[in-house]
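Summary for the funding panel

The consortium committed to producing paired sequence-structure records for every protein in the target list. Below we show the first two records in order, beginning with the earlier of the two.
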Amino acid sequence: MLGKFQRHKIMEIIAISKSIKISPRKVRLVADVIRKQEIAQALNSLSLIEKRSSGAIYKTLKSALANALNNAKKKQEDLFIKRIEVSEGATLKRYRYSTKGRTHPFRRGSSDIKIVLEEKNYGTKS
């Protein structure tokens, strides 16, 4: 029993992909395009973008959509992308072989992608 003014917990649907073998800077270029879009429009945009990271974001968005439909029993039309976070994953240290027996180190980056979905009309009276 919550009393006179009942508090509703905001339902956020989350999907996370970790250790995507693309640098975060390149993934953020695609993530900025679909931020704050509806699901159908974002999926259409991702299928048209010719970047390697669009495939990883597409799969993560489909996973978030499946979580919303199956676990939270939401409709696709009522959802939009509330937040996309692209953070750095583990970096692998690699070496490029150079002249005179030397090596030049470089880091190969990876990304963690987190997509949060929310209902469009949450909190409004219908």
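The next record, for a separate protein in the list, is shown here:
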Amino acid sequence: MTRAVIADDEALMREQLRDRLTELWPELEIVGEAKNGVEAVALVVVLGLGIAWSVHFEARRRAALKIYWARSCAGRAWREAFPDAPKDAIREFLYFVVDEFGFERGQALKLAPNDTLLGLYRACYPDKSAPDAMEVEFLHRTLSARYGGARFAAVPDGVTFGELFRLAREVRPNKSLERTREG
């Protein structure tokens, strides 16, 4: 049986990761949880696990995401790019994005209109240069289900969050942008 340690500084993320791993990999035995890399390495050494690569991956991921989370609120950039859009519509769209990536909603306004979907993906998964076909298809289906229409069937690699928001507003200009699927 494969054994693993879950490491993340946020309890909610550890819980979500445990649930997701249990769902996708039922035979995986999660033998511990750690709040940081030091605890994770200690558990790996004590338990004799061969999964130290995941600590390295998380460190690279956090470093790559720092360009987003270290910046100040991008609310002004969104208001300048979309002066006629209600603040709530912008916020709900950004909540949708961070929910899909598994981030806290408090990080939503750190994303700017000129940030690219692929750039955020690459920051989340620094060991992959691009999403695989199934991930892209899932994103297209999620966007289409959320906002309707076939406009999201072929989202280009370099699409920005501002361009996606503009498409969503064209498809559903007067609709609430509240999340429509169970989260």
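Regarding this second record: Residues 68-171 form one domain. The CA atoms of residues 42 and 48 lie 10 Å apart.
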